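Please decode residue identities from the backbone states below.
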């Protein structure tokens, strides 16, 4: 299974701004916890273990 690493988000700058805004006012610990929750939420949405394994490898 491969992971799509090509740009695939409409308005990537807008998404990045939303992501930064979600971290606004958070401590480092709260920001890390938010990132963990977001990762687990997106992993659950994907659901395919092969895709998730490929994404982990791609992120390394």
């Amino acid at each position: 299974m491969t992971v799509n690493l090509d740009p695939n988000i409409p308005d990537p700058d807008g998404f990045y701004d939303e992501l930064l805004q979600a971290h606004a006012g958070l401590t480092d610990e709260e920001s890390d916890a938010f990132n963990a929750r977001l990762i687990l939420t997106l992993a659950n949405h994907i659901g395919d273990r092969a895709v998730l394994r490929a994404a982990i490898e791609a992120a390394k």
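Observation: The CA atoms of residues 6 and 52 lie 16 Å apart.
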